Amino acid sequence: METPASGPASEAAAAAPKPAPKPQNPALRMLDMDANRSIGLPNIKLKLPSRNWMIFLTVTGSFIGALVYDRREKKKIQEKWANMVAHLADEPLRTTEARRKVTVFLSAPPGDSMRNARDHFRDYVKPILVSGALDYEVVEGRREGDLRAAVASRIRRKRELAGESGPLPEPDLQTADFETKLRHIRAATGVHDEPETKGDLVLGRHAWKEYIRGIHEGWLGPLIDPASLQPAVAEDTAPKEPLLSDTSDQTSTEEPPKDEKKEAEKPAEKPKPSGPPASYLLPSAYNSHQISPVAPTEFDGSAPVAFPHILGFLNTPIRMYRFLNRRHLADKVGEQVAAAVLASSIRPYADSTHSSESDFSSITQSQPQNPTSDGSSPSSDASTSEQQFVLQEEEKDWHKSAYKQPTDPAEIREEREWTDPMTLDPRISSRMRRFVLSPDELARSQRIAEGKEWVIGKEKPVHVPVWKSLWATYGWGEEENARSKVIIGNLDGEDAMFIDLGQMKVDVINTISHIFCSKDFVIVEYKAAEMLKTE
């Protein structure tokens, strides 16, 4: 309840005149927006935004800043690994040699399309291959098992060309495939590959498991599909039907209708394949097969490349974190790809009792694993091989559809390359090799990142700030490193004359005008009066 004394005091305070506004700067008075004056800019007063605007600007600004920083660092890291291998592009190559070719194995990640694997290859792997001027071949697998079948088929083709099944007949070039024609042309012209290891790049854990399965199937399995031999055996063992008697009345048989004849003449349509080709050899039968006699003692090197991929709405925080930290993925992938491009250090895959991939990084060439020469399976346990734990952390990110059994009976397969445990045969795993970077190469990559070193055999260009480059291009700047100045005009006109003096040509210019001096900003008029005399 108000007291009587408080009423008049409040009325007096309300009736007190407000302080006069601060006078405006006369120079800016013309910019004020007023109905009685000419239209100009409003008189904007500086003030802090509201609470909601502060929250919005803080969140969006932090996200954009983190994104810009990550992409800038990612670009620097990719340039580091590209400069690490760029000197290979300048090496001379003979006319009868083909550039070293690596094979890249791609497979659609579980629960997603092939586009993600292609984008990963284009963003992280391809720039380093292009910088090293390496030829590459991409082998894709759209479904589970396609990559395994492709790897095994390529190995069986190598065995056939090596003469394991006997001498090959002379191919008909008119009907032969492109690979056969190319091989025939290269043999006729004397073109051969570089005397270096080729190597394989395998992207992702799912592709790695199929790659391992394909190597075992190719070198341990048969050259001919066992399923193709079963119908022939069944025909031979089937009981023959008794022949009709010659004395039977043949006139009693009636000819079938014409419609039935047409249906019988139509060739039966082949059913569309519902999945990849069946495996020639299951993992449970590895020990019962001998390794191919033409198998090399050491396979070409391989490099498993990280390919993390996670789906799901509940995994949005993890996906956002990875989206803002792609620089770390670029550094990891760049190191793996650069090791395969340089191919200067190759070591065998190790055996250990630990399941961490980092435990195998300290193993060097001083610990070789000699495969058995008699082709029999060694008695050593291969359950602790390094190949089993490569990129194993990616399996926990796989979509649940990878573990789901198909409902269609036609799609049910005897083996699942992605979800089945990896089975290794020591005769195969001991011959595999892995590309790694030596300590000297790692130290060199660190010096390149710090700006102390650049491409081998080249001088690092001087860094020109952006403002200097813009000033030299669009302003009056004369920075020599920013852009090249043309001080002599076109020499192809009538004012240019060439005199042949043996093997040397002397350019005699009668009139040269408008020569810009980059230091004094003056135009010099120069005219040559005499011809250049050279003995």
Automatic annotation (TrEMBL):
Pfam families: Tim54. It is a single-pass membrane protein. Transmembrane segments: none annotated. InterPro entries: Mt_import_IM_translocase_Tim54 (IPR021056). The keyword 4Fe-4S does not apply. One of its GO terms (biological process) is protein transport. Its main location: mitochondrion. Residues 255-272 have a biased composition (Basic and acidic residues). The keyword Transmembrane helix applies. It is found in: Mitochondrion inner membrane. Residues 1-17, 352-362, 371-385 have a biased composition (Low complexity). Keywords: Membrane, Mitochondrion, Mitochondrion inner membrane, Protein transport, Translocation, Transmembrane, Transmembrane helix, Transport. One of its GO terms (cellular component) is mitochondrial inner membrane. Residues 1-27, 235-284, 350-414 are annotated as: Disordered. Belongs to the TIM54 family. This is Mitochondrial import inner membrane translocase subunit TIM54. It comes from Arthroderma benhamiae (strain ATCC MYA-4681 / CBS 112371) (Trichophyton mentagrophytes). The lineage of its organism: Eukaryota, Fungi, Dikarya, Ascomycota, Pezizomycotina.
